[in-house]
């Protein structure tokens, strides 16, 4: 019995695409990933044999990131973080700022919408010149790449 089958018996639903009870086990889609206690990385629940006293948790990977329109609260978190720390490592910024967004999403939001507003409100041309010279040669590439 696999972890996926044991979860079905227990009434826990694990998402899956390639698994069917009448077909051979392939584990190709990787949709049914679970984290097994004391295992270094997630495993496919359709291929992992269930053991007594095994502790597993569902693994959803990057599905926790928000997509779509930004809320005012998210904008404010991004502005506050940049205003306070002046850190331009976009890949690390969302987690540090408490946002459930990708680094690219934060960078694009800042460059295309918020930076212009911030500049108009009173950052001044000195800040603008320093920012454009030190952080980006173009707005398509960040300084940490």
From TrEMBL:
Residues 62-114 form the Myb-like domain. It comes from the Eukaryota. SMART domains: SANT (SM00717). It is found in: Nucleus. GO terms for molecular function: DNA binding; iron-sulfur cluster binding; NADH dehydrogenase (ubiquinone) activity. This is Myb-like domain-containing protein. The keyword Iron applies. GO terms for biological process: ATP synthesis coupled electron transport. The keyword Repeat applies. GO terms for cellular component: membrane; nucleus. Its main location: nucleus. It holds the Pfam family Fer2_4. Keywords: DNA-binding, Iron, Iron-sulfur, Metal-binding, Nucleus, Repeat, Transcription, Transcription regulation. Residues 62-118 form the HTH myb-type domain.
């Amino acid at each position: 019995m696999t972890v996926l089958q044991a979860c079905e018996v227990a009434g826990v639903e694990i998402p899956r695409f390639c698994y069917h009870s009448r077909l051979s086990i392939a584990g190709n889609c990787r949709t049914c990933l679970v984290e097994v206690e004391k295992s270094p990385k997630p495993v496919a629940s359709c291929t992992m044999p269930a053991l007594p006293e095994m502790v597993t948790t569902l693994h959803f990977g990057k599905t926790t990131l928000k997509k779509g329109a930004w809320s005012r609260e998210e904008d404010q978190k991004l502005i506050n973080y940049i205003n306070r720390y002046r850190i331009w490592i976009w890949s690390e910024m969302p987690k540090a700022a408490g946002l459930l967004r990708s680094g690219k999403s934060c960078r694009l939001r800042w460059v295309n919408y918020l930076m212009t507003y911030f500049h108009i409100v009173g950052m001044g041309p000195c800040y603008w010149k320093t920012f454009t010279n030190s952080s980006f040669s173009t707005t398509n590439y960040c300084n940490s790449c």
